[in-house]
Amino acid sequence: MTDATGLFITIFTAVLVTFLRIWFLMLISVLLALVLGILAARVRTAGAIIVPITNVLQAVPVISFFPIILVFFIVRIGGGLGVELATDFLIITALIWNLILGVYEAIIHIPEQYHQVSRVFGIGLWNKLSNLYLPASFPMIVSNIMPSFASGLFYVTLSEVISVGSQTYSVFGVGSIAIQFADSLNYSGMYLLILTLVVGIALNFYLIINPLINRAERYSFQLEAMEAPAVRKREPNVFVSAMSQRVTEILSTGRNTIASLNRILPGSARRSQEQVKGRVRISDRTINVVVGTILLLIIGLSIYFIAQSGFKEAFTTYLIKLEFLQKMIVGTLYDLLRIAIVYLLSLVTMVPLAIALGRRKVSGRFTTGIFQIVYSIPAPILFPLIVLFLTPSLSGVTGYEIAFNVNVIIITFLSAAAYIFFNVYGAVLSIPSELKVISRTFKLSWAMEMRNLVIPAIIPALITGSMAAFGSYWGGLMVAEYAVIGGKQYSVSNGLMLFIDQAIYGGNLIMADAIDMFMVVVIVLISYLLWMRLYSYSKKRYTL
């Protein structure tokens, strides 16, 4: 066996293992999302607990869970099992939140008449799950799988190798061999790994994601026959609106049928009703109390374990000290400046591209397929090549600090810019065809059409994409602000993510916990004071 053959087999096996790990955890995440999403939609106390917590956790970057998993899984459990569980837990936190909210949104938009009919006929829980809740949730789950897959691939490459002080913990996969290639400056291995990843991602899209998308379309209806067939509606909206329309059409027939059966077969109807009434039915109040108590117990245990993971000591040792807080504030300002630059770059590149492709009616399946393949390539795999080639080239002109910050901007851009593209692209495709016809009929200028039609249509989607991108930018910063490649250290001079990296690499997990707590507070405040207000305003102000 030649070295080239052995290298390819190693890379192929690593990619296969990583993909299997992601899909296995994706299945677990979907099952959890179904349970939690349905509970949140159908049980009042569950909704009051699950939805706000999920919204907060979705706003918090996945990377903020890193110190928790380091202490709990690696330090307390240890061994190969602890490392594997740490990797799996981090990936699940990258996959699950948008799936929960997607299921919740799908279930709450099921017309109440369906639930009324199910109660009339005494339809059981399993029947409702298989014939109502799962079909209703399926399009939303599928629409979130590819972004979740890309996010999981990003964080799996980050978490498959974890260095704490002098100790390095790893599981076999793309991330572990990528680190090996970077440390040994094995460029051929890095190039072959990237190529194999691209092929693997493409096969995943065309063999798994694409069939799922086609299957999801079975649960959608054509909303209006007069609409141009080339215009693609966002699947969740089509599903919800069409479902409501179909229910309105059939419910009167259903009621009449039930009434007729009661008149024609009174004995059978009474027996059927008596059978339904004879079943043991738990009151809504009891369900609310039991589910709410269980969820609060789970939350309490989670808080306890988090506190035991060093957060209590982190608070007393670091967070109450003014010097520490001042340093964190300065680091946060540096990182917010970097995020602002990346966000502006995302706006000036992704928004015009999404509008142009959407207005020209470029095939939605082809365009999203190409972009999903490209943006699914994990930035941590590209980072060593960017640093090794770009930093020396720019340093002679700009100096090391600016040169390395350019690398940070590039990696951070690659980590999240696609969120803005896909949200804006979907909004442009979903502009009602009647409005486009009116624009052509009155021969509106390009500037007038943009100002009065396209821009108002994309603003809510742009805010949604910006919220998602904002959380992912922090993951890109953590990857890029500090690295050791080929035995040489590369870092920025200041930054909040730099401080977390240094604390973890230095083995000071208590400080990492303290920085993590500070970061979560800052990001949640920004999300609710800025993004959530912008989102609410855009929904009220810009609705077609």
Any overview of this molecule?
It is a single chain. The protein is mainly alpha-helical. It has a domain at 321-544: MetI-like (MetI-like fold), CATH 1.10.3720.10. The protein has 19 helices and 4 strands. Helix 1 (3-42) crosses helix 6 and helix 6 packs antiparallel against helix 9. Residues 221-278 have low confidence and may be disordered.
* CATH topology term of the domain at 321-544: MetI-like fold
Radius of gyration: 26 Å
Sheet with the most strands: spatial strand order:
1-2
- Going by CATH, what is the homologous superfamily of the domain at 321-544? MetI-like
Tally the helices: what do you get? 19
> What's the CATH first level of the domain at 321-544?
Mainly Alpha
Give the total of beta strands.
Answer: 4
* CATH structural architecture of the domain at 321-544: Orthogonal Bundle
Distance between the termini: 63 Å
Spell the H/E element sequence. Answer: HHHHHHEEHHHHHHHHHHHEEHH
The backbone outline, from C-alpha atoms, is globular
Keywords, separated by commas or semicolons:
4 strands, 19 helices, two-stranded antiparallel ribbon, 544 residues, mainly alpha, globular, 82% helix, MetI-like fold, two-stranded antiparallel sheet
Outline the fold blueprint:
Elements: H1 3-42, H2 44-59, H3 66-77, H4 79-108, H5 112-120, H6 125-159, E1 161-164, E2 167-170, H7 174-183, H8 187-216, H9 235-264, H10 266-278, H11 284-319, H12 322-359, H13 364-375, H14 379-398, H15 400-429, H16 433-441, H17 446-480, E3 482-485, E4 488-491, H18 496-505, H19 509-541
Antiparallel strand pairs: 1-2, 3-4
Helix pairs in contact: 1-2, 1-4, 1-6, 1-8, 2-4, 2-11, 3-4, 3-19, 4-6, 6-7, 6-8, 6-9, 7-8, 8-13, 9-10, 11-19, 12-15, 12-17, 12-18, 13-15, 14-15, 15-17, 17-18, 17-19, 18-19
